[in-house]
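Hi all, a correction to my earlier message: I attached the wrong file for mevalonate kinase. Here's the right sequence:
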Amino acid sequence: MSQGRRSRSVGVGRAHAKAVLLGEHAVVYGAEALAVPLPQLTVTASARWSSRRTEGPGDVSFTVTGPLSRPVAAQASDGLRRLVRQFSPTPRTEDGAHLDVTLDCAIPHGRGLGSSAACARALVLALADLQGRQVTEDETFDLVQTAENVAHGRSSGVDARAVGAWAPLLFREGEVRELSVGCRGVFVVADSGVVGRTKAAVEQLREGFQRHPGAKEEFLRRAALLTEEARHALAEGRAEQLGTRLTDYHEVLRAAGLSTEGIDGLVGAALTAGSLGAKITGGGLGGCVIALTTPEQADEVEQRLRAAGAVRTWAVPLRGSFRE
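and the right structure:
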């Protein structure tokens, strides 16, 4: 990190949600994953020095607004406190000044949309802004991973990269590259209203691999094939094939026991409404569904998903860059 400008009285940083198209769970084992940004769902972090004195140096408090609950905010703050300690200190932290952080988060927690990573990224950028520093993407990634590894255990890193991206990404082992987009379509994301259980899903999958010889290899083989075919379909404008690969990947996750009856109902509703494909997105055992549809069919798909139990939906046009 290098000094970029004078420190400010308030630092502000922003990030957004993401959704994984294909590659959940397989990415933890070194396989590729495809992800898209969801710029409609944002988090803004504000950081400022407080005049109140504290007993120890570098003390920090968090205020969270939006759909995050207080228990969730408390849990997330453990990783965020670690992030603050990792961030290069300034004389203000050394002399015992108190840091007040406000996180205005519109990303529902526990839905596989990257809320914790987005909060961490927004905080990194707010601290950099407050302290008049410049941070590179790699430095930001490392700091976000510091918080993510506290919150979730070993994190693949896909969330840390995708919550700052403005184009669909191919992710593998910490490295990313932007994807070519030749398709015309709309992604509809539907919130089931049920918090996903990523850690439980990861453990369930691991136990299944241990019980059934060859299951891990077959899971990774199938996941890699579908992800590769989806990447080519996305680039070459074959929207129907991309949609089919989404649905096929959902079947892979469902067969591993990572879906739920409610999620399967939403997937079915999306397909019945004319979606080109649909699947669970994120860690599993709850969370969200993502469906690919034509622009003409998007409203109908959203209506059917809400009728099937989705508590909210978002429509995200598919394009090469998601910057407005």
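Sorry for the mix-up. The two ends are 29 Å apart (CA to CA).
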